[in-house]
Fold this sequence. Notes:
By secondary structure, the chain is mostly helical. It has 5 helices and no strands.
Amino acid sequence: MFGLPLQLPTLWLCAAVILFLIKHLIADFFLQTQWMVVGKGKASGWIGPLTAHSAIHAVGTLAICLALAPALFWLAIIDFVVHFGLDRMKELFVRRASVTPREPMFWRLLGIDQCLHGLTHFIFALFIAAAHAPG
C-alpha cells in the first residue's frame, strides 16, 4: 500500500507518532496566535493568518523529517497543503453553520478537524518508519 513495506520498525513508527503529536500540540495550541485563530475564520483577509499557521506546522514537520528521515523533507510541503485545506474547510463549515464554541456542532467540527490532522500525521509516521525498514 502506497509502496510501504508490510513490516515496519515499531520503534521508528512510535517515535514519529509521538513527535508528530507533540508538534501538533505546540503548533496548534502554543504557537497559534489570536491573530491566526480569529483571522483564519474571517470571510476575507484569512489567507495571511492561515498561511502563517500552516507554515508553523510545515516547519515542525520539516524538523521531524530532517531528524528522522531527511529524504522525506517533502512531507513538510504536504503538511502545509493538507493543514491549510483542512483548517479552511473547518472554518467554512463553522461560518456557514453559524456555530460558536457554546454549541456542540462547533466542537464536533473541531474534533473532526483534529482527527484528520492526526490521521495525516500517522500516515507521515508510516512513511518515516518505512524509510527505516530493512531491505
